[in-house]
Design a protein that fits this description.
CATH topology of the largest domain: Arc Repressor Mutant, subunit A
Radius of gyration: 19 Å
InterPro entries: RNA_pol_sigma-70-like, RNA_pol_sigma-70_dom, RNA_pol_sigma70_r2, RNA_pol_sigma70_r4_t2, RNA_pol_sigma_r2, RNA_pol_sigma_r3/r4-like, WH-like_DNA-bd_sf
Number of domains: 2
Number of strands: 0
Keywords: Sigma factor, Transcription, Transcription regulation
CATH superfamily of the largest domain: Winged helix-like DNA-binding domain superfamily/Winged helix DNA-binding domain
CATH class of the largest domain: Mainly Alpha
Family: Belongs to the sigma-70 factor family. ECF subfamily.
Strand content: under 5%
Order of helices and strands: HHHHHHHH
Distance between the termini: 51 Å
Helix content: 55-70%
Largest sheet: none
Pfam family, one: Sigma70_r4_2
Protein name: RNA polymerase sigma factor
Number of helices: 8
Shape: globular
């Protein structure tokens, strides 16, 4: 078994064995990142392949720190670039038409699994989902999100608030169905 450092060093030398080891080590986690940012498995696979090519192409620029964090940033940026490319071809949703709801005080989230929660997040409108993932899952600030997406910082905050409200509404509906 090779250490992460050995695998990265082997990849920097262009050795196929180490590239395969890197792929095996991170493919599941990085595919999960891609799926969070897309509407379909097909689109996620495209981003996944493109991002892995970028990782191997730019691995020489990795100079230390968390390798997984460095790699994750490539995958997230690739997903965002894909979002920008496809955005001009997609119908824009008027998010102001989505009703805001006041959530119940009961702890609905504790009643569902992580997998179920990911499925619920996937139901968010695309803009909400993107900001929610960047802020809540990846840990980016609103300023960083605004720069990445080319939107105002206030828009990022607003989209996050609406995403949370939308999720609470979905969770309340989910909770009601479970009780019936």
């Amino acid at each position: 078994m090779y250490s992460e450092q050995e695998i990265v060093a082997g990849c920097k030398q262009g050795k196929a064995l180490f590239q395969e080891k890197l792929y095996q080590l991170y493919s599941r986690r990085m595919m999960a990142v891609c799926i969070r940012y897309t509407k379909s498995r097909f689109e996620a696979e495209d981003i996944f392949q493109e991002a892995f090519v970028k990782v191997f192409k730019h691995i020489h620029s990795y100079s230390g720190g968390s390798f997984e964090g460095w790699m994750r940033r490539i995958f997230v940026n690739t997903a965002i670039n894909q979002y920008h490319k496809s955005r001009k071809y997609q119908e824009q949703v008027d998010y102001s038409t989505i009703e805001e709801s006041s959530p119940s005080e009961e702890d609905i989230v504790s009643d569902i699994s992580g997998k179920e929660l990911l499925l619920l997040i996937d139901q968010l409108p695309e803009g909400y989902k993107l900001v929610f993932n960047l802020y809540e899952v990846e840990g980016y600030t609103h300023r960083e999100i605004s720069e990445m997406l080319g939107i105002a910082e206030g828009t990022s905050k607003s989209q996050l608030a609406k995403a949370k409200s939308y999720l609470k509404k979905i969770l309340l509906t989910y909770s009601m169905k479970e009780k019936c």
